[in-house]
Specification:
single chain; about 375 residues; alpha/beta; five-stranded antiparallel β-sheet; 11 helices; binds pyridoxal-5'-phosphate
Length: about 375
Amino acid sequence: MSLDDKRLFRSDLKVNIYAARLIRNVANLRSLCKNGEKFCAVVKANAYGHGVAEVVGILRDEPVDFFAVANIFEAVYIRPLIRPEQKILVFEPLNLATSREHIGICAQNGFHCAVSCIDAAQYLCRCLAGTDKRLNLHVNIETGMGRLGIEPAMAATLIDIIDSSKNLNLSGVYTHFATADEDDLSFAYEQIENFNRFLDTSGIKGRKDVIVHAANSAAAMKLPEAHFDMVRCGIAMYGYYSRSQRKPPVELSPVMELEAPIVHLKRIPAGRSVSYGRSYFTTRDTLSAIIPFGYSDGYSRAFSNAACVRIGEKFAPVMGRVCMDQFMVDVTDIPSAKVGDWVTIIDSDHKSPAGIYRLADIAGTICYEILISLHHHLMRVVVR
Ligand SMILES: *Cc1c(COP(=O)(O)O)cnc(C)c1O
């Protein structure tokens, strides 16, 4: 246990990160790419809960050209952890509320920053005027995501502003899919068409120095025509399709496994209630194991009376409500269970009843949200 670090750390709650699987997933995704296509590893949200320092530490030695983060705070954090020639793409667009200081930091560090509107580009020009700084910008084109992105009809003006400023450099042009992970890809094809129309009219395809990109994990796997110059993969790198697949387009292995020890065993007679709200009653003499993990660590209350954990080869169901720092599982049928035994709370197997897909189903959400909920204070352990 290290107490010199001011950050709170729980070394008894282990998130194992299997380096070889992460590397293999990246290689499998890269194998879908054409020669010369760049690979952008999306490591926002603490690398989807896997631990950004750990993930970046593994991927710095792999064929990763870009790391994408949500904001410049994450960018500043990972800059010293990656190779100098690896680039950082920041998704949150620079805007009128971004401070001059932060804009300077982006330019100095060579960050590639999204920009989504004309006002923002003019502001960036003003902020950097008279300096010798040069800021790399990626223009986000609205093709159907309905989030950020400039309307294609306005994008030429934005690009002109960038091209006519000696402090701004047009490094990329991109868009983002709203439905690439769905079975029905018709809207994704419409978005590709909108994007291609923009690329053709703007002449961007002829500019070799501008990186054109669009594909998230789902599009990288299913829409080769959406790859352009670079793919941006998040969820697939960590071993998941955005939803469980019957016929996976490429082999992916879950990179993470989450474990905690049993801290207490308790015999409960039949007919007693367990945990807050009395939502569970024992129907037999029950052996209950207490796991020191709760919704404050990222284990949703939605898992109450619904999820299970793996102990060795067996599965034990959650009894009663998940508490803030604890939950109980029924280990009556696992009589060998002892205090100190490691319990697998998140299994690294797509089909496991304690796997991410099952947990996401129970919580009525997507696997992304289960992964990113895992708190920073859990210890990430890189398994080589
Ligand atoms: C998060 C994000 C991605 C990665 O999406 P996945 O589905 O996890 O592959 C790609 N592009 C943008 C703009 C994103 O915000």
